[in-house]
C-alpha cells in the first residue's frame, strides 16, 4: 500500500501559508521547498504587496532557498544552482504557471507536487508541458494532493470585491458552500501511467482515468485537514513561526482553528462531504474585526472605540 501521508503533511503546510496569504489580501497560492525531509524555504503570493506581477509563491521560495544555501556556505550561482536544487521538491497549492514552470526547470528542481490544476496558465500539463518540453532538466509533476482545499481558498479570494479597482466589480454569487468542485485532475496530462503508479501506487490505478474521486493519504480512507496538520508541526517550521513573531502568542492557534474549519472532509471513497458547515472569507473578516475591536477596547478611549454593524463590518463611532 502506497502511503501518501508525508505528501499530504507537506502540502498542508503550503495550504496553511496560502490561507495566511488570503488573510493578507493576497491571492492564496503558497509553496514550500523540501530537501531531505526538511523545509528549507517557503513562499506565498506577494504580487499585491510588492505591486510586482512576477512575485509568485515559487519565486519567493526560490529567493529564500538561495539565501539558505548562501547561509550554509553552499554555492548557488550559475551551474551550481542546478546541483543545489537537484534533491529539492516543491509543494505548491496550485499548478505552477508557465513562467514559474520555466524557472523551476532552469534551476534543476527534482519534482513538483501540486494541489489543483491551473486552468488558465498551467505550465505543468494543463496548458503547456514546460516541465517536460524544452531546454533544461525535465522534472515530474504530481497533482491532486489537497486539490479541493486549494480550490476552496481560491474561491474565498475571488468572491471578494477588489476595492482598489477603478470600478469595483460586485460579486453576485457568494454562496461558495453550495458550489460543487470541477472534475478531478486529468492525470494523463502531467505524467504517463507508469510514472503515475510509481508515485500514487498500484492501488490508485483506477484514478488515473477517473474524474470524480479525490486522492487520499491512504487508499480507502477519508480525511479532513484537521487530521493532517497541527500547531506543533507549524511551529516546527522556522519560516512559518517567523510570520507570527510580532503577533500575540495565540494568533497561530486562532488561525489554525479557523483554517481547519474552512474545508470539506473527503470520504473514504474519495468523494467530497458537502454536509459539513464550513467557514468562508466573510467569517474571517468578522473574526478579524472582533479582534481589532478587542484591541481598541484596551488601547483606545471610549469615544474612539469601534462597533460592528449587522453585516460584521467595523465602523467608528
Automatic annotation (TrEMBL):
<feature type="domain" description="CMP/dCMP-type deaminase">
    <location>
        <begin position="9"/>
        <end position="126"/>
    </location>
</feature>
<dbReference type="GO" id="GO:0052717">
    <property type="term" value="F:tRNA-specific adenosine-34 deaminase activity"/>
</dbReference>
<dbReference type="InterPro" id="IPR002125">
    <property type="entry name" value="CMP_dCMP_dom"/>
</dbReference>
<keyword id="KW-0862">Zinc</keyword>
<protein>
    <submittedName>
        <fullName>Piso0_001912 protein</fullName>
    </submittedName>
</protein>
<dbReference type="Pfam" id="PF00383">
    <property type="entry name" value="dCMP_cyt_deam_1"/>
</dbReference>
<dbReference type="GO" id="GO:0005737">
    <property type="term" value="C:cytoplasm"/>
</dbReference>
<dbReference type="GO" id="GO:0002100">
    <property type="term" value="P:tRNA wobble adenosine to inosine editing"/>
</dbReference>
<dbReference type="GO" id="GO:0008270">
    <property type="term" value="F:zinc ion binding"/>
</dbReference>
<feature type="signal peptide">
    <location>
        <begin position="1"/>
        <end position="31"/>
    </location>
</feature>
<dbReference type="InterPro" id="IPR016192">
    <property type="entry name" value="APOBEC/CMP_deaminase_Zn-bd"/>
</dbReference>
<dbReference type="GO" id="GO:0005634">
    <property type="term" value="C:nucleus"/>
</dbReference>
<dbReference type="InterPro" id="IPR016193">
    <property type="entry name" value="Cytidine_deaminase-like"/>
</dbReference>
<keyword id="KW-0479">Metal-binding</keyword>
<keyword id="KW-0732">Signal</keyword>
<keyword id="KW-0378">Hydrolase</keyword>
Amino acid at each position: 500500500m502506497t502511503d501518501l501521508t508525508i505528501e499530504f503533511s507537506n502540502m498542508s503546510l503550503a495550504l496553511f501559508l496560502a490561507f495566511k496569504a488570503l488573510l493578507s489580501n493576497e491571492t492564496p497560492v503558497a509553496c514550500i521547498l523540501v530537501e531531505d525531509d526538511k523545509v528549507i524555504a517557503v513562499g506565498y503570493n506577494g504580487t499585491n504587496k510588492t505591486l510586482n506581477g512576477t512575485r509568485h509563491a515559487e519565486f519567493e521560495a526560490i529567493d529564500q532557498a538561495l539565501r539558505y544555501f548562501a547561509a550554509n556556505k553552499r554555492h548557488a550561482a550559475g551551474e551550481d544552482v542546478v546541483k543545489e536544487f537537484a534533491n529539492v521538491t516543491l509543494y505548491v497549492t496550485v499548478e505552477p504557471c508557465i513562467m514559474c514552470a520555466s524557472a523551476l526547470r532552469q534551476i534543476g528542481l527534482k519534482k513538483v507536487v501540486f494541489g489543483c490544476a491551473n486552468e488558465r496558465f498551467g505550465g505543468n500539463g494543463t496548458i503547456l508541458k514546460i516541465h517536460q518540453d524544452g531546454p533544461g532538466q525535465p522534472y515530474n509533476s504530481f497533482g491532486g494532493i489537497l486539490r479541493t482545499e486549494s480550490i476552496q481558498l481560491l474561491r474565498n479570494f475571488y468572491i471578494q470585491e477588489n476595492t482598489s479597482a477603478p470600478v469595483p466589480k460586485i460579486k453576485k454569487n457568494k454562496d461558495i458552500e453550495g458550489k460543487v468542485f470541477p472534475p478531478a485532475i486529468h492525470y494523463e496530462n502531467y505524467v504517463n501511467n507508469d510514472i503515475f503508479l510509481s508515485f500514487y501506487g498500484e492501488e490508485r490505478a483506477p484514478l488515473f482515468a477517473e474524474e470524480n474521486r479525490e486522492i487520499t493519504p491512504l487508499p480507502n480512507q477519508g480525511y479532513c485537514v484537521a487530521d493532517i496538520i497541527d500547531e506543533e508541526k507549524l511551529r516546527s517550521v522556522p519560516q512559518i513561526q517567523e510570520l507570527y513573531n510580532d503577533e500575540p502568542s495565540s494568533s497561530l492557534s486562532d488561525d489554525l482553528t479557523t483554517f481547519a474549519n474552512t474545508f470539506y472532509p473527503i470520504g473514504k471513497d474519495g468523494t467530497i462531504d458537502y454536509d459539513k458547515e464550513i467557514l468562508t472569507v466573510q467569517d474571517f473578516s468578522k473574526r478579524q474585526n472582533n479582534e481589532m475591536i478587542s484591541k481598541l477596547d484596551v488601547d483606545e478611549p471610549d469615544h474612539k472605540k469601534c462597533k460592528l454593524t449587522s453585516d460584521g463590518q467595523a465602523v467608528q463611532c
